[in-house]
Amino acid sequence: RLMLRRPGRLSLMLTTGLVAAVFEGGTLGLLGLSVNVLTDDTVMLMEELPDFLDNKLGLYLQNISRGGLFLLLIGFAVGAQILKGLLSYVSMIAQIGLSYELVSDGQNMATGHVMNMSYSEVTKYPSGQLGALIDQSGMISQIVTEVGKASRAILMTLSYVGVMLLMSPLLTIAALVIFGILWVALSGIVKVLKQLSVRAIESEIDTWRWSIEYLNAPRLLRLFGTTEVAKDVIHEFRRKRIAAEKHGAVINAAILPVFEIITVFGAGVFLICGYLFSGESAIKVVPGLFVFVLVFFRLKPQVKMLSDLRLEMAKLLPRLSKVGGFLRIDDKNFEKIGGIQFKRLTSSIQFNDVGFCYDGSDTNAVSALSFEIPRGDTIALVGESGSGKSTIVNLLLALYRPSLGEILVDGSNLGVIDSSTWRERIGVVDQEVYLLNTSIKENIIFGRQNISDLDIYRAANTALAHEFIENLENGYQTVVGDRGHKLSGGQQQRIALARALVSNPDILVLDEATSSLDSISERYIQKAIENMHESRTIIVI
């Protein structure tokens, strides 16, 4: 489908390949004819010309010597070969352009697929696995490469077979039988390579998954002394991938020598048999046989290319199958697009008999939950760990949808409200702050467009963060380090609070935002919250 969206490049690749094959066949035909001119006592060229060329060209050819005609045919053959080379190059350039465009298309499609998944769906995948699948999506481009090579190989093969049939139908059948036996013999190898490819892609995805999992937890690994364990796990999956790919490469390496041996053996048989069966006319027949063998040898790489196509597809299809299963949309949940555009909260938020159960769980996280949050109020959700507090927030943010009951926003069901516009009016500060390894300014405006410096300073002041930011060496341009490790826990929380406030949201959600802070940092956050009591609806866990 992606290839067909670019009919220009695709048709250029196929058309130039077709014309190149015609010129290739013409080259070999002219070479065979030139040999016949020197070795045959009677040159039948003029008698085989079409009627419209007979009068003009035939008269010219009758007046040219045997040597001159030989040189003329060789010249035409060289010219045809030059044109064939240029057209083949154009075909490959079109193939390369199409291939790289599909790398971009495939990976963009996979990235968009991940971003459009619902939160409940995307959290089913480890982040490393998602990264590996996006990377593997670029392999769609290899289909273009194989289609390009296969189309040129098929056209060239037809061209060569046509020339060989004109020279000797019997020998042509013998040659096709030889290549047919080789083709059938490769079927077992194709099956083995497909199995090895499945092992390789599964190990590669596992390598990505655990590499990213462990690389994202440097502190945890060192605290528990498990760096060697992590290294061994990654090495083991990498070893399995390399072993499978190496095994496949060893099998592939054996194919070319087999091709060489069989084709050289076949060529020798053609020459010997032709010589023995020609009797007294052997001297005249052998030059023609050499031309046939030349065509036979030109045919060999094309047949090998078609054989390689089978082997490459055996390795490629299991990888594409993984990507294809991932890109399916009929078995996944996606973010709701469209619906009522939410502008601002005017009345209240109501939970009416809400129940929710996570996938794979037998018990509800929350059941028969009913309460109301009036606009402008500050409420607290208090309970033990696992009692469903964060689940309520996730339902409120439309990251999950209730299994039972409904959530009403100003009387409208949250399920019919556009999710993106709803979340734009909510600021969230989680217990675990996630800061990007970039400047404080970029972290505050994360995901927001058209935020002015005045808005940034106002949000930082409200979060009681402006003063400590200004005292940093580079102020708002200070890079916070990986996950914000250059800042204290309290400073990170205040940056997160500023990020939640910079778009001036109606609703502020604080999910245990002070639970891991010291008493002084907690006092700063609590003071910032108290200053906002009158202007926002605040939900505190």
> What are the segments in which pLDDT stays under 50 over at least 5 consecutive residues?
41-50
Strand content: 5-15%
Largest sheet: 4 strands, antiparallel
The percent range for helix content is 55-70%
Describe the structure.
The chain is an alpha/beta fold. The protein is built from 19 helices and eight strands. It has helices at 7-39, 51-54, 56-62, 66-116, 119-122, 127-137, 140-167, 169-185, 187-215, 218-223, 227-278, 282-327, 389-396, 419-424, 440-444, 453-462, 466-470, 489-501, 519-530, and strands spanning 348-356, 366-374, 378-380, 404-409, 412-413, 426-429, 507-510, 537-540. It has a four-stranded antiparallel sheet, covered by helices on one side. Strands 3-8-7-6 form a four-stranded parallel sheet. Strand 4 and strand 5 form a beta hairpin. The longest helix has 52 residues, at 227-278. The chain is elongated and about 105 Å long. The two termini are 49 Å apart.
